[in-house]
Amino acid sequence: MLKMNHLSKVYRTHLIETHALRDFSIHVREGEFVAVTGPSGSGKTTFLNIAGLLEAFTGGEYFLDGVDVRGMNDAARSRLRNEKIGFIFQGFNLIPDLNLFDNVDVPLRYRGFNAAERRRRIEQALARVGLSARMKHYPSELSGGQQQRVAIARALAGSPKILLADEPTGNLDTQMARGVMQLLEELHGEGATIIMVTHDPELAARAQRNVHVIDGQVVDIEAEPRMRGPDIAVPQAVQA
Amino acid sequence: MELRPILSALMRSRVALVLLGLQIALTLAIVCNSLFIISERAALMARPSGMNEADTVILASIGFGADFDMKRAMADDLAMLRALPGVVEAAPINSVPMSNGGWSSGLSLTREQKTSSAYSAMYFSDDHGLDALGARLIAGRLFRPDELGERSRKTEGWPPVIIITRALGDKLWPGQDAIGKTVWLDTDSAPSTVIGIVDRLQAPWVHNDEVVEFATLLPEVINEGAFTRYVVRSAPGQRDAVLKAAEAKLAALNSSRIVREGKTVEKIRADAYSGDRAMMIILGVVIVSLLIITALGIVGMASFWVTQRTRQIGTRRALGATRGAILRYFLVENFVITSIGLLLGAGLAYGFNVWLIQNYQTAAMPWYYVPTGCLSLWLLGQLAVLGPARRASRVPPAMATRSI
Predict the structure, then answer these.
(1) Which residues contact B370 (CB under 8 A, 6 or more apart)?
(2) What's residue A235's pLDDT?
(3) Do B319 and A83 touch (CB under 8 A)?
(4) For a Cys staple, A208 with which of A21, A33, A104, B142, CB 3.0–4.6 Å?
(5) How confident is the model at residue B151, as a pLDDT?
(6) According to the model, what pLDDT value does residue B155 have?
(7) Which residues pair with A164 in a beta bridge?
């Protein structure tokens, strides 16, 4: 599903070069739930940005659902991103001036679906996260956990090949975090491919596989996925 | 087209929407009416006087001293002026078109009338007058030398023959040939017969719409007092030289008078319409200023929104928006705001025009002013928002994951 070979990312200024990722290789299979962990500044977000086609990379190879993304122009990357990837951001990134329906509608409009198809997908996605009754509400009228659920609905609505979650519970209290994690686990149980970037080892432990990144390099990768499922108990640390 | 979500989002920023919409509405209303007033003034200024304005000059002679002989001085002056190199024709005249000072009188079609049928400017000149003015006779004939008379305060009655403008003839005898018709300049005197029609010769009062195109030429020379005015038409291209020479020769010819008012008819026209020109300039400045302020308002608001929504733009990009889609979003948003303003502005523009009609007797603004103004402001809005919109389109999608 997602394959990076010897990928590198260098940020250059006229004074210094910063190697954000170096010789970075990873292979995420369809249906996997992978946690990418590491300390601040380790390159987790750079990996997520490149994986999500938000940034270009400097060297190496990257195949997303079999598509070689090297050399793609901005418009093609935008289309591929819209079609293949569903984003879940730490800060939810909902558009405050749009109600839930219109928020979920944003990526669908860019996809070019007709109005009926969009409505069907929006209703289905919001129903999946348990917010059907609040379609006309605005983000400011929801709790943080509910907002993240909307963001998940927005990510799901376009039926993406892969969900990229950037610290999805980072802005939530423990109870809301638990709910969001349960939802992600349910989605994984239903077959979704999920890559979650987190610095929280407790959350990472709930993924099938952990990839640890330090100084832009993969230093620890579990070769075989652990068997996890949506029915696994929430760890004590998260419940506390 | 993201029209509905854009409208929905705008309704959540009502204050900005109302302020910008009002600014656009007022701009449309003021610009349309100002342009209409400018066009009206321009049309007013573009009316021909009927004279040869390019080659004609006016001079005045004011005698002083007990021994000043008006009749003799006028005869000498005219003989000198007509013989002056470059002069085509010269004649005495009491006033000229656009000079804002002159003689007017009512004209009646019957002796019994209590109210005049029309009011007209009265130009007193000799048989050279019409030619000196450069006015075009389109029917009938000029005055003959034997028809010339003199006028003073003691003169009673009016000359038996007159020449009138076509507009005056049409007013007095609509659809009829005015030649040979009689008219009373004074119902206590004998009537005057129209012997000639001039295509056009404006009255001195260019802002009096009721009489501006009505003029009557009378074959009389005013020779009372010490003031005489001459109209002198030069050969093409010799006007300024003729004016200079005429002033010098008149001054030298008679030491008992002073020569004044030496000026071209073009200068007289410029003076007559100086107020209109000033108003056009002021309104032009108002229009340009308003358009600049409105454009800056749009640029400012759009720039603010781009800055405020940087994260949101990044999110949209992350969710699949191309640069073009972001550019289009801001252009459409501006189009929506401008349209709301223009809708209100169209009503204001027509309302303002009605108010001007009721209070200042202006004409009704032609229908196409508001649609043209709307198109122009739509274009202005799109041009103004283009810079901020392009800046928005350059926000990278990675902005969505940045902590800002």
Answers:
(1) B28, B32, B346, B349, B350
(2) 34
(3) no
(4) A33
(5) 87
(6) 84
(7) A87, A195
Which is nearest to B151 in space by CA: B112, B124, B173, B117? B124
Q: Which of B5, B325, B403 lies closest to A102 in CB terms?
A: B5
Q: How far is CA A152 from CA A95, A104, A155, A171, B77, in A?
A: 14, 9, 5, 14, 102
The number of folded domains in chain A is 1
Counting one residue from chain A and one from chain B, the pairs whose CB atoms sit within 8 A come to 89
Contact B138, B198 (CB under 8 A): yes
**Rounded Cα gap, residues B48 and B43, in angstroms:** 10
Which residues of chain B fall below pLDDT 50? none
CB contact at 8 A, B77 and B244: no
Q: Establish if A62 belongs to a structural domain.
A: no
Using alpha carbons, select from A62, A66, A33 the residue that is nearest to residue A50.
A62
Is position A215 within any domain? Answer: yes
Report pLDDT digits (tens) over B64-96: 877 888 888 899 999 999 999 999 999 999 999
Helix, strand, coil % over all residues of chain A, rounded to 5: 35, 25, 40
CB burial readout B265-283, b (16+ within 10 A) else e = beebbeebbeebeeebeeb
Which residues make Cβ contacts (< 8 Å) with residue B403, sequence separation at least 6? A91
Structural domain includes residue A5: no
The per-residue pLDDT for A229 is 43
Q: How many residues does chain A have?
A: 240
Q: Is residue A20 part of a domain?
A: no
Q: Which tokens hold the place of B223?
A: 């020779």
Residues of A in contact with B2 (CB under 8 A): 109
Mean pLDDT of A146-170: 92
pLDDT at A225: 53
- Test B400 with A99 for CB contact under 8 angstroms: no
Please tell me the predicted confidence (pLDDT) of residue B1: 59
Domain that holds residue A233: 28-57+70-239
In this structure, what CATH number is given to the domain that contains residue A131? Answer: 3.40.50.300
- State ipTM: 0.89
- Interface residues of B toward A, Cβ cutoff 8 Å, are 2, 4-5, 8-10, 12-13, 311-312, 315-325, 396-398, 400-401, 403
Tokens of B97: 């078109």
CA distances from A163 to A152, A192, A200, B396, B398 (A): 9, 7, 18, 20, 16
pLDDT digits (tens, 9 = 90+) for A65-120: 999 999 899 999 999 999 999 999 999 999 999 999 999 999 999 999 999 999 99
C-alpha span between A91 and A96 (Å, rounded): 12
Helix ranges (DSSP H) in A62-220:
74-84, 100-111, 115-128, 144-157, 174-189, 201-204
pTM, to two decimals: 0.80
What dihedral do alpha carbons A62, A65, A66, A70 form, nearest 10°?
-30
Domain ranges of chain B: 3-46+274-401, 69-255
What single letter denotes the amino acid at residue A59? G
